[in-house]
Every structure is written in structure tokens, then in C-alpha cells.
Amino acid sequence: MISSQLFESPSLRMTYIDPEADAKVEAGWTYDLDYAQGLTEMPVRPLGALAVQKLHEEEQKHVEERGNQYYFAIRLKEGDRLAGFVRFPQVFWVHSSAWLRLSIADPAILARFGAEALGMALRYGFREMNLYRIETVVPEYQQDMIGLLEDAGYLMEVRRRQVFYRNGRYYDALHFGLLQTEWQAGAAVEVMA
Length: 193
Hints:
Layout: E1 12-15, H1 19-29, H2 33-37, H3 49-66, E2 70-76, E3 82-92, E4 97-103, H4 107-128, E5 133-139, H5 143-151, E6 155-166, E7 169-179, H6 180-192
Parallel strand pairs: 4-5
Antiparallel strand pairs: 1-2, 2-3, 3-4, 5-7, 6-7
């Protein structure tokens, strides 16, 4: 018997991405340089709703064609409001591993619901996708995200020097990894608490 709902947590739902409706909300988030930097490798700039919609449509096309990418919207159950996105931009099936990116623009939502969103994403990756390893890369200045990853059991494995450029300065890229066995041990501790 499955003991937990795969796409729900106490306060959140992990849903499909609605390219048109979600783009209207996400376009406003692109004024935040930290958020916008996660959308593209190009120099950051605010994006209009049509540009963001095009990004979502391209993502969906890649999901259907390649079979190694998964994208979800994170919505608050209360009011069904878009809170962010969970992306598995690359799944390496032969190695049972994947990259994970959690994108939440609002610092208050990240502080209040970030752990819940990350927990839901990890549960999907480890239980449904049967991954053995999930990796996440963050710039060293994103201390909120680093704290979430460490609290979830991730270990920092690699520090790549001066990879991210922001506000006239270079920052290190921190590579975090979490193994299924480590996640299961942490999940067992939570159940016992």
C-alpha cells in the first residue's frame, strides 16, 4: 500500500505547467536577477509573458521528445496560486541519477514552503523515478537554498571556482548530491519523530 500522496504535501501540489497562465505570473518574477539567472544562460533581463510561455512550450516539447526531462509547477493548495517550479532538466537513466532544480522566486514562500517543495520533489525522484542519486547546483550566494539542501540531507561534493557572475563579481558553483539511501535514512528519522 502506498502511504503518501505523490503529488501533494500538506500545503502544496506538484502539477503540470500551464504555459500560458503560468507564464503571466512567472514573467513578473524575472525582475529578480537570482530567479532570472536560473532560466537562461544568456545575460539576464526581464522577460514578457510570451517569452516565458515560449520557454515553457520548448520545455514541454523536450519532455515529449527526449524522455529524460520532467517539469512541474508548485502550487499552494490555498488559492491554487503558483509558487514555483520543480525541474529535472536531465535524467541519466543508465546511472539512475538526475539533476534537480527548485525555483521559487518569493523569499517568503521559499522560507515557508521550500522544504516542503523540495521534499515533494525528492519523494518523486526517489520513489517514482527510482533514482539512486539526485544532484543540485547552486551559486554560493544563495544561502537560503543551500540551507534547504543541507537540511534535506544533501552533501556538498564539489566547489567550482568563480562560475556565476552577478553584480560585477564571480561566485563559486556548489554541487550538492543526495543518495537514495541517505534520503531514506532521513525519511525514517522524520517518521519516527
